[in-house]
Amino acid sequence: YFIFFSFQQRIEIHKLRQGDNLILGFSIGGGIDQDPTQNPFSEDKTDKGIYVTRVTEGGPAEVAGLQIGDKIMQVNGWDMTMVTHDQARKRLTKRNEEVVRLLVTRQSLQKAVQQSMMS
Amino acid sequence: KIESLKVTVDFLKVPLGLKKPPLKEALAAVPGPGRPKPLGVERHKPRRSDTMDNESQYSGYSYKSGHSRSSRKHRDRRDRHRSKSRDGSRGDKSVTIQAPGEPLLDNESTRGDERDDNWGETTTVVTGTSEHSISHDDITRITKDMEDSAHLDCSRHLGVSLAGALALLAFLTPLAFMLLPQLLWREELEPCGTPCEGLFISVAFKLLILLLGSWALFFRRPKAFFPRVFVFRALLMVLVFLLVVSYWLFYGVRILDSRDRNYQGVVQYAVSLVDALLFVHYLAVVLLELRQLQPQFTLKAVRSADGASRFYNVGHLSIQRAAVWILENYYHDFPVYNPALLNLPKSVLSKKMSGFKVYSLGEENTTNNSTGQSRAVIAAAARRRDNSHNEYYYEEAEHERRVRKRRARLVVAVEEAFTHIKRLQEEDQKNPREIMDPREAAQAIFASMARAMQKYLRTTKQQPYHTMESILQHLEFCITHDMTPKVRGGHGGRYLTAGPTIQYHKDRWLAKQWTLVSEEPVTNGLKDGVVFVLKRQDFSLVVSTKKIPFFKLSEEFVDPKSHKFVMRLQSETSV
Q: So where does this one cross the membrane (chain A) (predicted)?
């Protein structure tokens, strides 16, 4: 049978330089100033956290293992659960940082048998 | 002469009327040629009204079973009209203007339709009596009517005369109070100047006001005769009686016996009586008029024959008054009762005629046999495959199509007919021979639409309700008031929809005798859940009561400045 659970993951993304910008290769949605009911990835529709809405193929985020639907909890130690959309963007795109370490929460659907085998 | 056409509501009197078999069938069996009837044949013309003998219980006339109260009147009228014009055309091929009183649409041609359908199925019904004899049932019915109406008249007049006498007594008493000392011991009275004169004037005006008020409140034509005494009125009469009697008592003891010399006191005593009477009048206004104005109950009136229903709001009324209220509204709200529209066409129902025969094998259990048998038959009939619903559906669709086609023709005919008439303007020069009054104008254009009208009415089975005379009158009315043809034949016009009963000619349709059937005494007030029935011969109105719920209104204040809005954001940023 299947169970639905979430686990945390640490992901380290090395930014890619494209011209004058450093890009990470994914898109975010959410924030405390946004409408949480429009979020297709959240389990709880009042969750105003920052979610990964798109991951570009072959980008640094995909390489690092970020997946669509992940909720970003921390960026380089900064909390991302209670920030506005713009603040989140700013924290991710600091010009002087080449590497960002994210703490994300991912929901997963696994077979229980497989899970017990792995543990 | 038997007094007829009284407005009566008889309590618990089920009409004795004998169910006259529809004359249609009797005459359908008369062998006759098809549509075009030979002119000038002295046919036994059936009473057109028999096919629609619904509304009137006693004004229902039957050729065959003799005289009831108002039938004689109607029959005489009809006979007179019949003798006037015998050469009217009977068929529907030609249109002629017939004398008033003749029905536009011949009954036999109507029956022609049905006859074609069910030629094999009509039966001859013999009613057993001839045109001029009275059957036994009718005699008993008539005598019963006479007794009842006589009895009711007596009690009614008694009540009215009693009330009148009491009112007169109450009115004259203050005058008597003031006059008696003057008459009896005038010499001993103390002179009484200005205050007495003031009191005289006030008494005069108060009595005038009382008179006017009583006239406005009580002296109205009764709109109905109630089976039981009006409780509130009786109460008020008793009150007035006690008041007057007690005043007389005190007067007799204190003033007459002791020959009081203080005239001003006597006059003030009289004035106090007048005040008390005015207050009783106020009480009467409140009890009889005001209390029922505020709506407390919703009455649902359903006609048993075809299910037409309406809702009315009334206040606190007794059952009998509520019944009269309902009846007043019935005549202008409910579409007229047309029994021709009620039944499923015969072709649909005839298939159901064949039944099941039940054989019981084994022991006979006599007590349970009949119910068991009937139940078995019903169950078997229900399980049998029955396609009559199909036929009903197609029949309905076909009928609908026919009606629409005829209606279209009628509308076009009417519109066209109206284009031939123009109101005479002052400046038009026409010779006097061409100028017509509304009646002639109506007759002139009637011919061009008569055929379409006739066919339409026959299709919608409305033809018994509209005589030629009534159609001409309506035409005249429309022409006089410059109404558009739509009123005549347009959408929702008078002939296209079945109107309320009161629209049709009064004498025919407004029968006023209804029977009130109720489980509770009819002077009880209305309560939630009370059901009573107003019966007529062919149908009844079932009225049920529901209390209007108690509404809890709460207030919520909304500051106009509190209406504020934000945009719904869902941004997505790529990083």
A: none
Three-state SS letters, B233-255: HHHHHHHHHHHHHHHHHHHHHHH
**Interface with B, mutate which of A23, A53, A68, A84 (most B CBs under 10 A):** A53
Residue type, B297: F
pLDDT over 70 at B527, yes or no: yes
- Residue A37: inside a domain, yes or no? yes
Q: What is the reported pTM?
A: 0.54
The predicted model gives B380-404 an average pLDDT of 81
Q: pLDDT (tens digit, 9 = 90+) per residue, A71-118?
A: 999 999 999 999 999 999 999 999 898 999 999 998 876 655 555 666
Distance from CA of A6 to the nearest CA of B (A): 24
Residues B277 and B165 in one domain: yes
The residue range of the domain holding B511 is 297-338+507-547
Q: Are B284 and B181 contained in the same domain?
A: yes
B114-121 contacts: CB < 8 A, separation 24 or more?
B114/B24, B114/B28, B115/B28, B117/B346, B117/B347, B118/B346, B121/B346, B121/B350
Q: 3-class SS at B349?
A: helix
- A27, A35, A38 member nearest B574 (Cβ): A27
Comparing B249 with B139, the larger pLDDT belongs to: B249
Residues in chain A: 119
* Shortest CA distance from A60: residue in chain B: B575
The ipTM of this complex is: 0.83
Domain count, chain A: 1
